[in-house]
Amino acid sequence: MNQVKQFENTKVLVLGLAKSGEAAARLLDKLGAIVTVNDGKPFDENPTAQSLLEAGIRVICGSHPLELLDEDFALLVKNPGIRYDNPMVEKALQRGIPVWTEVELAYLVSEAPIIGITGSNGKTTTTTMIAEVLNQGQKSAKLCGNIGFPASSVAQEATKEDVLVMELSSFQLMGTKEFRPHIAVITNLMPTHIDYHGSFEEYVAAKWRIQEQMTADDMVILNMNQEIAASLASKTKAQVIPVSTQEIVDGAYLLDGQLYFKGERIMAASDIGVPGSHNIENALATIAVAKVMGVDNQAIHEALSTFGGVKHRLQHAGQINGVTFYNDSKSTNILATQKALSGFDNSKVILIAGGLDRGNEFDELVPDLVGLKHMVILGESAPRVKRAADKAGVSYTDAQDVADATKKAYQLAETGDTVLLSPANASWDMYVNFEVRGDSFLKTIEELKGNK
User: Fold this and answer.
1) Are residues 76 and 143 in the same domain?
2) pLDDT tens string 324-376
3) Angle, vertex CA 400, rays to CA 397 and CA 405, nearest 5
4) By CB neighbour count within 10 A (0-12 exposed, 13-18 middle, 19+ buried), where does 318 fall?
5) Can you list the pairs that 202-209 forms with residues at least 24 positions away whose Cβ atoms lie under 8 Å?
6) Does 19 count as an annotated binding residue?
7) Rounded to an integer, what distance in angstroms lies between the CA atom of residue 183 and that of residue 17?
8) What confidence category does residue 452 fall into, taking pLDDT thresholds of 50, 70 and 90?
9) Domain contains 310
10) pLDDT over 90 for what percent of the chain?
């Protein structure tokens, strides 16, 4: 770990706990800062805050008192989920206090080079793919960031022989200053999190911060299937490595069912271990990183052909009597479900869809639903999803919840069919998050296996 001195005897406020807040507080304390942690959860119900207090770190819980900012903090490190219109954040900025997220701390202390992956869809899968390919190629990759392992914790343990493979959200990137990955990947850019950013332009600007400090010694990998990527390519000092499934580019591309890098055939697209056109895009970005990092083609092929996916993201969930199950609970929007369906023969798919009603119709999804064997529909948005199914000419069945939907889908399925949970909706009408929703699907499959 780089022993940075800039925080010694410096007052720092950590706003919001969870994994990243705790990691930031402990790292800052280790670096000699005078740390105060402020979290909204009451102290009696907050084991993390209790643990920090036992470690000698000051904690203030249960509310966010604005007068706390009268204490002359030199820095505020916030949980990325806390918005910039939060009163504490607004007041800090008004007072000229820098507001960071903990990935900035990770960059400052990391001895290891960083590969940063961001985008609207596919970043978790791509991050995991890259780590697995690099490890297959003996490059000692360490996963961290938005994928569940706080970057500032992992960075402390990493050496110059390691590589940090870091998933980054727009929220995290907004809180960076000097952050500079050696390689940046932007999987795609779609209108999402507009409620947080205010506009698509502001969202793109937040994502584009990933390359702000990069130089000609660094590389940014862009998906040229999108026009916006081509427009961004001219706005960076970094070397641009394009990827495309639609044309031959001076980078990674798909041609006649084969994946290439700069004219060199790497592997067949059909050998990728997870289905879907989006996973071809993810694999191309991974190949671009791997080739730049000196991984040989055999290692790339071995890692990508055995890649089993990420839990809740087109996760192969087993087979019963010739019926295959896929858990794509993380598909919380229309685009994600469109990409999931692209990997299957619709005539053999029973799709489980529906969830939180956000007031939007599903007309964009209609062309992708055409030809489905059947749909099982659930949740608040069921009436809207049914309208889309009617327009697509697809029959459907109602379900009470995911467990009920899974059982009904299996009853309707025949040997050779696929039951796909890809809701196109958030989970919050029934479940705390998409993970809990997906776990219900997985649990029900195990129950069905026991009953066969």
Assistant:
1) no
2) 999 999 999 998 899 889 878 899 999 999 999 989 999 999 999 999 999 99
3) 55
4) middle
5) 203/170, 204/228, 204/232, 206/170, 206/171, 206/173, 206/174, 207/118, 207/119, 207/170, 207/173, 208/232, 208/235, 209/173, 209/174, 209/176, 209/179
6) no
7) 29
8) low
9) no
10) 85
The answer on whether 56 is annotated among ligand-binding residues is: no
In a domain, 405, yes or no: yes
Confirm or deny that 123 is annotated as ligand binding: yes
User: What pTM did the predictor assign?
Assistant: 0.77
Using CA atoms, how far residue 162 sits from 146, 157, 234, 235, in Å, is: 19, 10, 31, 30
153 is in an annotated binding site: no
Q: Taking Cα atoms as reference points, which of 236, 130, 139, 143 lies closest to residue 187?
A: 130
User: Does residue 57 belong to any structural domain of this protein?
Assistant: yes
Which of 305, 336, 361 delimits the end of a domain? 305
Structure token digits, residue 351: 């799709």
The answer to whether the annotation marks 198 as part of a ligand binding site is no
Is 121 annotated as a binding-site member? Answer: yes
Contact criterion met (CB below 8 Å) for 174 and 93: no
- Name the pLDDT band for 282 (thresholds 50, 70, 90): very high
348 is in an annotated binding site: no
